[in-house]
Specification:
single chain; 604 residues; alpha/beta; Rossmann fold; 2 domains; four-stranded antiparallel β-sheet
Length: 604
């Protein structure tokens, strides 16, 4: 993610307003409790003044005893009110912090899930995870604690200052002038804290990205005995995060110390003036006691506000980064008025019209160049060619993970650079409609951290257990699943670590079979199988290409040409272009690219 030129400020927290609005009632109740708790705190010095002047000064022993009881009862009542109101405030703001954080985390995660693969070419997964964990935790701290604490102390500080000005106008006028001189340099110094807060969060995200990348490639790391190197790389990254955090903490510590010392000095000066007034007989001892407590409340409020301001700066940086994720727009989206696909009695038809495409990360090298291909309903078409020829790109464009370069807008019929599914431009279709008609078995199958039953059912969540088992049997997966400790309910581990490569691939095939789509994409679907299993799976795939209502359309990517000899048509790609197409025997007879590949494989 690119950093913004401007440093964040507490105004960045305004991005949280849409997440706070649904809970206006609870926010209002929290504010009521906050104000009542602040009022109870401000009432304490008044009760203390009444105790000193009315219960201790100038009375007989009996009258003092009765008066003291009344005043201590009043003080206890203030304490009870303060406890109850503080408890109500704490519960409400903690609930809001948890709820808003959960809503924010869910919104960001759901938004990231809808991003096109182009987004993940420039954004590391570890960075996104850092935003969802570290940054949302900072937001939770502010919404569920710091913001409420800051408001409460602001109210208490303002109330204490108002009463002090009212009771000691001349002294507080002097103190107020000094406070203005304190606030200005504090705000200026706060800019450095803001910049360091943002930099600290960046370094933490870098560490998270490194850890996520390495942990997802543990077998490779260990096979190359790179544990030490990776640990050192992570150590360097965490050390940079530590150094930045230390600089941020040091700057924030200086800011807090400056505010506390400067405000305390100013307020102690005011207190000194008050003691002089008592000695001169201008105010009572109770008045002085009240003033002392209000000075303590005011100084404490300023100290807490200094801490809270630092928390707000960190949360502002976190919020800004979360909003960057939340406001990032995907180049691939459903149209506002999607077109419906026609009902099918047979498999889907496909048409690629003069498609040219460059990956965003490789703008100078076309993955496909003027690619045109027609696939009839029920036809099985194999895509073959050397690595990098553009075979997988055909699948990526068909699933609309990307759009062709310069693809026309919806309704611009007759222009080149289009992909038609059943006669409809894929850009005119809702994404869930388009992808709902396609099933895919990838070369590197994805297994989720759940049971075998749920992994297969991922293709059709509403499928019954019997349908899941039937799909597994058709994919030659039922045998090894039944041998697992809990059968279909066995937890397969993260990324299916408890399974072999061939077993993971058979789970993926069963998942696609269960979905039963009119268009099936097989990306080297049998590459991880032994020869015996491959023959069984190949027969299962061929039977899966047929639907009850007619033929299923199938596109197959294959490096092992023996698996596609029976295809209706073989399309040979080289450097993003179609160079040959026909049946196996026809292409061998041509003596071109396919014949050369076939000679290498079959001779070997």
């Amino acid at each position: 993610m690119t950093e913004r030129a401007k440093a964040q400020s507490p105004q960045s927290l305004s991005g949280l307003l849409p997440f706070l609005r649904p809970y206006r009632g609870r926010i209002g109740l929290a504010l009521v409790f906050l104000l009542l708790a602040a009022a109870a705190t401000l009432a304490f010095p008044l009760a203390l003044r009444s105790l000193i002047d009315g219960g201790l000064v100038g009375r007989s022993a009996g009258d003092q005893l009765l008066a003291l009881r009344e005043h201590f009862v009043a003080l206890f009542a203030v304490a009870v009110a303060l406890g109850l109101f503080s408890a109500g405030r704490f519960y409400m703001v903690s609930w809001l912090g948890e709820r808003v954080t959960a809503d924010l985390r869910q919104a960001v995660y759901a938004h990231v899930l809808r991003q096109s693969p182009g987004f993940f070419e420039t954004t590391q997964t570890g960075e996104v995870l850092s935003r969802l964990t570290v940054d949302t935790t900072l937001v939770q701290t502010v919404v569920g604690s710091s913001l409420s604490l800051g408001l409460r102390n602001a109210v208490m500080g303002a109330g204490a200052l108002g009463i002090l000005v009212w009771t000691n106008p001349w002294v507080m006028a002097q103190v107020g002038a000094v406070l203005v001189l304190i606030v200005v340099p504090a705000l200026v110094f706060g800019r450095r804290v803001r910049k360091l807060s943002r930099a600290s969060q960046d370094r933490v995200a870098d560490s998270s990205a490194i850890a996520a990348e390495v942990l997802n490639a543990i077998p490779v790391v260990q096979s190359y005995t790179a544990e030490g190197r990776e640990a050192q790389r992570f150590e360097r990254s965490t050390y940079e995060a530590f150094r930045t955090a230390v600089r941020r903490t040091a700057a924030r510590s200086v800011l807090v110390a400056f505010i506390i010392i400067a405000t305390s000095a100013a307020l102690l000066w005011g207190l000194y003036q008050g003691t002089q007034a008592v000695m001169a007989g201008e105010i009572s001892a109770g008045h002085l006691g009240q003033t002392v407590v209000y000075v303590i409340i005011l100084a404490g409020a300023f100290a807490v506000l200094g801490e809270v301001y630092g928390d707000l700066l960190r949360a502002a940086g976190a919020t800004e980064r979360l909003m960057e994720l939340l406001h990032s727009s995907s180049s691939i989206a459903s149209p506002e008025q999607p077109v419906a696909l026609p009902a099918l009695s047979r498999g889907s038809t496909l048409r690629f019209e003069d498609v040219t495409f460059h990956y965003p990360s490789r703008p100078l090298h076309p993955a496909l160049s003027h690619f045109t291909l027609d696939v009839q309903a029920g036809e099985t078409v194999a895509l073959v060619g050397p690595s990098g020829a553009g075979k997988s790109t055909v699948f990526q464009l068909l699933l609309r993970f990307y759009d062709p370069d310069g693809a026309p807008a919806q309704g611009d019929a007759g222009l080149s650079g289009r992909i038609l599914l059943d006669g409809v431009d894929t850009r005119s279709l809702a994404l869930h409609t388009l992808r709902g008609r396609i099933g895919i078995v990838p070369q590197d199958p994805v297994i989720f951290s759940t049971s075998a039953m749920d992994n297969i059912r991922y293709g059709r969540p509403e499928a019954s257990d019997a349908e899941v088992r039937a799909a597994a049997q058709a994919a030659y997966a039922d045998g090894f699943i039944e041998e697992l400790p809990q059968g279909y309910d066995t937890f397969l581990g993260e990324r299916g670590v408890r399974l072999s490569g061939g077993q993971r691939q058979r789970i993926a095939i069963a998942r696609a079979m269960l979905k039963n789509p009119p268009l099936l994409l097989l990306d080297e679907a049998t590459s991880a199988l032994d020869a015996e299993s491959e023959r069984v799976i190949q027969a299962a795939l061929e039977s899966a290409m047929q639907r009850r209502t007619g033929a299923r359309t199938t596109l197959v990517i294959a490096h092992r040409l023996a698996t596609v000899q029976s295809a209706d048509r073989i399309v040979v790609l080289d450097q993003g272009r179609i160079v040959e197409q026909g049946r196996h025997d026809e292409l061998v007879a041509l003596g071109g690219v396919y014949a050369r590949l076939a000679a290498l494989q079959f001779t070997a």
